[in-house]
Amino acid sequence: MAYNRAIKLSSRLFYPTAHYYLWSNQMRLGILLGYSGAKLEIPVDFVQTADEMGVHIIWTAEAYGSDAVTPLAWLAAQTKNIHLGTAIMQMQGRTPANTTMTAITLDQLSGGRFKLGLGLSGPQVIEGWHGQPYPKRVLSFTREYVGIVRQILAREKPMEIEGEYYQIPYKGEGASGLGKPLKSILHGRPDLPIYIAAIGPKNVQLAAEIADGWLPIFFAPEKYDTAFREDVEAGFAAAGPHKGYHNFDIAAPVTVVLGDDVSACLNQVKPFVALYVGGMGAKSKNFYYTLACRYGFQEAADAIQAAYLSGNKWEAVGMVPDELVDMIALCGPEARIRERFELWRKAPITTLNLTMTQPDTAVLKLMMELVSS
Q1: What is the pTM of this model?
Q2: Per-residue pLDDT at 2
Q3: Which residues of the chain have pLDDT under 70?
Q4: Which of 1, 194, 256, 334 is least surrounded by CB atoms within 10 angstroms?
């Protein structure tokens, strides 16, 4: 059950108990394109079809190959209304100033359609690819980074930052001493939407506190109350009485595989789950493995990780439980997808981000119908 207005009680927002949320917007459909393999191919025709159908947003990603921004610029020039988001831009790969310059530029070129999705990625990518230290205090790093981005967008005064991670102007070792406080020449939107990708409890709480939206991964709607709700609402409380479900976009992903054979459809999702749970991080630090454990699949997660890290990737794929895939994806015949979609409708999701093994207009039309009904 959803409400279209916030309930104010004793100057604080009141959040009802489980299964009763306050959000004002009908669910919207987005599409996650992800990052490329060995060759970059952008499904322009498919995105243009989505634009014509009224899909709300298209998201791109980056790892250690294609970047998230260039494909959006390409798509911005070939679409009219669809919003354009990064899911995500790696924070440590760019200074806050560079990120904000890019965001303002793309936002203006697209006519105000850009949404800035940020994330920490992981130590293997940040240290192994960008050659930067992975922050030991990820919460303070994220808070400082986002704060600088918002200050640049606001353009209230030239930038002067004495932070734990950033000093602007720089006065440290090797400085010329000629740096001066600057203010962006280009005027951005102070309210340009900022999203944060987060998995762990404290990171989710921070996203709910300081961001305009949250980009989860492997989102299981039936686990929202036990795995995420407390952290999201703690973030709202930390932000103050203005913040709540009514003005925070939970942009959750769902992989959809349409087909008559449920088992075959589930199997199409398993390599992706195995990659992240088993190999997207070290044995001692893998956020996706930890999330699978929080969902109640620790034994399977242990087996997947052990197989994947020992080089037995297809063995790891075979260890992914059907039940885990069914929690985070919609698989099978149309009737089954319609039935299981009700779990997603009951969660406080405001943007449902569709992922597919390959662009499929039939899936797009079905999901557009479901989120619009």
Answers
A1: 0.92
A2: 37
A3: 1-25
A4: 1
Q: Which helix (H) or strand (E) holds 60?
A: strand 57-60
* Cβ pair 269, 329 in contact under 8 A: yes
CA atoms of 172 and 100, how far apart (whole Å): 23
User: Contact at 8 Å (CB) between 163 and 78?
Assistant: no
Integer-rounded Cα radius of gyration of the chain: 21
Query: Judging by DSSP bridges, how do beta strands 57-60 and 28-32 pair with one another?
Result: parallel
Name residue 235's amino acid. Answer: G
DSSP 8-state secondary structure symbol assigned to residue 172: S
Supply the angle between the helices 229-239 and 201-210 in degrees, to the nearest 10.
Answer: 40
For residue 83, the cross-strand partners are 57
Question: d(Cα 152, Cα 226) in Å, to the nearest integer?
Answer: 37
- Domain boundaries 2-252+347-354, CATH class: alpha beta
Contact indicator for 61, 33 with CB cutoff of 8 Å:
yes
168 contacts 145 by C-beta, under 8 angstroms? no
Three-state SS for 240-263 is CCCCCHHHCEEEEEEEEEECCCHH
Q: State residue 244 phi and psi, 5-degree precision.
A: -175, -170
DSSP string for 158-220 = ---EE-SS-EES--STT--S-------SS---TT--EEEE--SHHHHHHHHHH-SEEE-SS--
Of 115, 95, 94, the C-alpha closest to 103 is 115
Give the C-alpha separation, 171 to 347, whole Å.
48
Domain ranges of the chain: 2-252+347-354
With residue 133 as reference, give the H or E element that holds it: none
Show Cβ contacts of residue 253 under 8 Å, excluding neighbours closer than 6 positions: 32, 216, 217, 218, 219, 353, 354, 355
